[in-house]
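To the wet lab folks,

You asked to see what we're planning to order before we commit. Fair enough. Below is the target structure as tokens, and below that is the sequence we designed to fit it. If anything looks off to you, flag it before the synthesis order goes out.
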């Protein structure tokens, strides 16, 4: 689901002043974690907030962990700073019951240097216990403190009065823009659906929470079994029984904990029967493994091609890689057995260069070093796989696509064979997974393949598809404006 465009309001303050309680109050759902332990709010949380009809996006930030005002903890500071970029206003919360602390003063000093308008909130102001604390707030030089009780829902009208002039105009402008954009988008989607129907392509919606269908392929002995075992090893949680997809391949569902965010992410490992128990017939090994691997590719979103560091990149690997790309899957390459690799930087650079050479239609395929034995690089590999799926599943906004198209044609106009220019008129995205586009134009038969490659490379680079296979189809079109 796409979030509506709303002005952004960031809630800032030291731990335990009631930021999460305020966030919950504004968003109306128990989205943020509330706890008596200081520093409970670790990550930014966002939600659509309503305040007496004033709508905005509320962002709950991590508390300023360290009580030492001289050394604001870098991570928290950095996070808060990030959430302030693009924010339209900040709600700076302090605790009216405890009064100001040196850390409050430090945050205020820092906030005054930022460009964002601030509403100062004296929270926990119910009853009389906050009275002197409210008055103290004036000394921060951020105007009149707004007494609020986030817990009891008091002071909401005053908060509205203070906040609405800061964001109302922006909210209204965004609303108008959003409506206009939605109307254009609806038109475009209709056109795209028609074009897709003509192409026989289904427009599928991508659910980022769906399990990542991942296949690991590679030549015999590259270490696939070892890698799968390591991934599913001791500390991994198997979430389901092995479900057969076909007679030849099975899927193993498990939850992977992303180390950076601590988030649980679902992965469906597509395994082939042949990958686990292969024919003993040695001379058939090579053929079998490639065929098995490629069956898994059919069911995968992202494919990891495993190389053997002790052997480097071989022709067979390039064949597999090309096949994966032709199938339109998102490809990444992992050099395994890094623990026993020699001359690692030469090896890595050598493989990189050989890949870019051998996969000329798709430069910059993600390349990582891993060890199935020690586990090195495996978390990075999985993170990269999720990122890759994201790009592979992405739909570009109509405005972004048109901006790119205009820019690409301006930078490098299509040639004019025989003095008559080839006209490329408009572009539309007709599919995702992999991203597919149709460009309508005239005299397309004369368009050189190199120009088509230029467009594909540019769309990948400029619209952040990275090394995902992107497909462009050319269609002749009468000028719709004639
Ligand atoms: N009396 C009173 N207590 C409140 C009020 N708002 C929040 N609290 C309490 O203050 C404590 C901290 O609230 P949180 O919302 O978790 O504070 P926070 O600023 O998000 O804290 P961190 O997550 O540590 O940054 C909780 O025990 C709340 O119940 C209020 O208006 N009045
Ligand atoms: N040093 C080291 N050895 C590894 C690593 N990964 C796998 N091996 C070894 O490489 C050999 C092949 O590993 P397998 O996991 O059986 O390879 P495979 O790709 O599944 O092989 P097939 O089943 O033949 O396709 C085994 O001896 C593993 O112990 C690694 O990261 N480091």
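Sequence we intend to order:
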């Amino acid at each position: 689901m796409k979030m509506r465009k709303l002005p952004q309001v960031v809630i800032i303050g030291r731990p335990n002043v009631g930021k999460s309680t305020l966030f919950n109050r504004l968003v109306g759902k128990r989205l943020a974690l509330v706890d008596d332990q200081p520093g409970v709010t670790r990550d930014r949380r966002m939600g659509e907030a309503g305040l007496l009809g004033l709508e905005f996006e509320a962002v709950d930030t991590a508390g300023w962990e360290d009580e030492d005002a001289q050394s604001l903890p870098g991570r928290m500071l950095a996070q808060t700073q990030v959430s302030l970029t693009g924010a339209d206003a900040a709600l700076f919360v302090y605790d009216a019951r405890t009064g100001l602390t040196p850390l409050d003063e430090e945050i205020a000093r820092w906030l005054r240097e930022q460009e964002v308008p601030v509403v100062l909130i004296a929270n926990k102001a119910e009853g009389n216990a906050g009275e002197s604390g409210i008055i103290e707030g004036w000394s921060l030089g951020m105007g009149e403190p707004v007494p609020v009780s986030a817990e009891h829902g008091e002071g909401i009208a005053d908060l509205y009065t203070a906040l609405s002039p800061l964001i109302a105009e922006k909210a209204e402008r965004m609303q108008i823009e959003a409506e206009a954009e939605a109307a254009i988008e609806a038109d475009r989607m209709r056109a795209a659906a028609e074009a897709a129907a003509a192409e026989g392509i289904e427009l599928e919606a991508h659910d980022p929470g769906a399990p990542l269908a991942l296949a690991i392929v590679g030549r015999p002995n590259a270490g696939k079994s070892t890698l799968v075992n390591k991934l599913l090893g001791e500390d991994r949680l198997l979430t389901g029984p092995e479900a057969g997809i076909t007679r030849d391949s099975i899927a193993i569902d498990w939850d992977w904990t992303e180390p950076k965010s601590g988030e649980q992410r679902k992965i469906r490992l597509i395994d082939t029967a042949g990958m686990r128990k292969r024919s003993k017939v040695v001379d058939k090994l090579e053929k079998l493994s490639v065929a098995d691997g490629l069956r898994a590719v059919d069911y995968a979103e992202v494919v990891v091609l495993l190389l053997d560091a002790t052997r480097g990149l071989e022709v067979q690997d390039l064949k597999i890689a090309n096949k994966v790309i032709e199938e339109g899957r998102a490809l990444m390459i992992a050099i395994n057995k890094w623990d026993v690799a020699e001359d690692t930087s030469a090896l890595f650079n050598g493989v990189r260069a050989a890949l870019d050479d051998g996969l000329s239609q798709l430069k910059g395929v993600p390349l990582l070093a891993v060890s199935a034995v020690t586990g090195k690089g495996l978390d990075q590999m999985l993170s990269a796989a999720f990122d890759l799926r994201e790009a592979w599943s992405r739909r570009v906004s109509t405005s972004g696509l048109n901006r790119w198209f205009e820019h690409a044609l301006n930078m490098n106009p299509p040639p004019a064979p025989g003095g008559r220019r080839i006209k490329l008129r408009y572009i539309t995205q007709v599919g995702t997974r992999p991203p597919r586009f149709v460009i309508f134009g005239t005299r397309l038969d004369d368009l050189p393949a190199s120009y088509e490659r230029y467009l594909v490379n540019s769309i990948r680079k400029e619209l952040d598809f990275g090394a995902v296979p992107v497909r462009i189809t050319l269609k002749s079109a009468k000028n719709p404006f004639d």
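Structural context that might help your review: The CA atoms of residues 34 and 126 lie 19 Å apart. Confidence is low (pLDDT under 50) at residues 30-42, 66-70, 234-248, 273-289.

Thanks,
Computational group
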